[in-house]
Amino acid sequence: MVFRDEFETTKPTHKLVTRNLPDVKDWDEVGWISVENRALTVFMNYGAAVQFQLDPKHGQFETVQRELTRVLEPNRLFAGSEEEYRATLPNDRELVQSLLTVTTGDTDEPIDRAFYLDAFAVVTEQSWVYRSVPHHFHVREINATGHAGLLEELRESLADVRGSTVVPFEGLISWEADSTQYELVWDALRQSDGGEGYVSYDLERLKHAAMHPQEHSLVFEWESASGEPLLRRAFWRFFDPETATPPRRIVVPDRLRRREVLSAFRRLRRDLDYQYTVEADSTE
To answer: Residue ranges per domain, the chain?
Structure first.
């Protein structure tokens, strides 16, 4: 656990997501580092400070020690032994941006950004706006509660960025069919496994989604697992074999629910530039 228990009282509402696009470096314009930095310029408009947990190996650690205030108990946000510092906004905005910016892969900047910057958060006096653990891509969490205009400004900022968007934290939509729970998250169609967990089917493999009104179902066409990289296929075979065989048909008796599910697929295709197609039968 990176965040202290006291920091968990306010739950995230949304998250910032970025696809791992082919031939895109982390610091490219549409890479995850540049995307997060672009979004951070918006988050800082809504915060009073940025707090960092920084490893002493970071290339700018001495600058941070000299320029920023070290955070001590009981005001720390993050668990762990690494030192924590607070940058006040807007005064320290340029220093924050310099800590996060990566200009090239030929220096230590990517290592500093991804691994020696353990965690950071944009905070207000009462709560938090954004928190991130750079080496865990799934922890890029947003608290939009009480921040009118934040999500709209974020989406405008990311509108021209291929493969990145803001999505609800709990996923786009969920439904039950044939006693099985399904949910659509930003990168996968998930299906309950009969216990307390889920099997996930990667949307990178999806080719087409459509309605089948006569059978009250949704039908899917997927790329064959044989087209996936060898290491991924080996992982599926030994650790999660069900992910290699995604469903080709899911019964959804309610017509309105079928429309809502396909609408969610369309939204992801539009916002994240997926290559699958979505078709709705006009008789529905």
So the answer is: 5-168, 173-279
* Residues β-bridged to residue 142: 14, 130
Task: Give the pLDDT band of residue 243 (cuts 50, 70, 90).
Answer: low
Q: Which residue has the tokens 């959804």?
A: 252
The region, left, alpha or beta by phi > 0 then psi within -120 to 50, assigned to residue 239 is alpha
CA-to-CA distance for 198 and 258, rounded, in angstroms? 21
132 touches 120 (CB < 8 A): yes
| CATH code of the domain occupying 173-279 | 2.30.29
**Secondary structure class of 124 (helix, strand, coil):** coil
- Measured from the Cβ of residue 25, the count of other Cβ atoms closer than 10 Å reads 15
- pLDDT exceeds 90 at position 52: yes
What pLDDT digit, counting tens, does each position of 57-115 carry? Answer: 999 999 999 999 999 988 899 988 889 999 999 999 999 999 999 988 788 999 999 99
Q: Which helix (H) or strand (E) holds 200?
A: strand 198-202
pLDDT of residue 107: 86
Mean pLDDT of 239-259: 80
Token pair belonging to 133: 């653990």
Interstrand relation of 83-88 and 198-202 (parallel, antiparallel or unpaired):
unpaired
**Structure confidence at residue 238 (pLDDT):** 46
If 0-12 CB within 10 Å is exposed, 13-18 middle and 19+ buried, where does residue 214 land? exposed
The encoded tokens of residue 268 equal 């992801």
Cβ within 8 Å of residue 99, ≥6 positions away: 52, 60, 64, 117
Q: How far apart are CA 30 and CA 215, in angstroms?
A: 41
Helix (H, G, I), strand (E, B) or coil at 16: strand
Give the side-chain half-sphere CA count within 13 A for 188.
13
